[in-house]
Amino acid sequence: MKDAGVSLSDTLTGLAIPHEPCIMPNDIISITVNSTVPGAASSFNMPAGTGSSDGSISTSTSTGTSGNLQNYLVDRDGRINFPLLGELKLGGMTVKEAQYYIVSLIYPRYIAEKPIVNIRFTNFEVSVLGEVAKPGIYKSVNGQMTILDALAAAGDMTVYGKRNNVLLVRIQDNGDVATHRIDIQDKDIIQNRNLFYMQQNDKLYVETNKAKGNNSRFGTFETIGLSALSILISIIAIATR
User: How far apart are alpha carbons 57 and 26 in whole angstroms?
Assistant: First the structure.
């Protein structure tokens, strides 16, 4: 019992550590640069609608000080094109790592004081499919979502869902597709932070168990049987007239 208690404590402590998702291909991110030096950061905050030839896209993010700013689409190689700095490879970095990286490129070359860089995901969403109450696409406003959060958002599994063999499909930072089979009933899944925490654009598929398959098959046989019985009764009725 003591070992179990220590294990539970360690698990809960690990979950208390904030999880940071990594920037992946096809992510849409907003990047704002702020500085105490008046006007120093303006060249790094590109207004929306200024064109997409640099790798940004036309959607915008509203900020309290800068109005609508351009968002950036991460390409298949994990890169974006950023004003003045050019092509940046952010794929595979956490938000915090990417922020530090951009600060290191700006200071002190372009700005005499260290700027504040903020990066946000604007399209953090996952798909939940299969045997759940409400299949669909679900978004996270803070860039964090666990497998349990995703299933809860979809109304949980139906009674016909395979809880011991949920399929997770994930696009990795190099563009490859990886699949993982997850047993939701296994408490050890909580300790595997890489799988327990969803990445943006992840897809969860809950397969149908044998019980529903059998029920469907029996339902078909019963329908055929009733139809045959109805035809037989009609024939007998006609013959006895």
Answer: 11
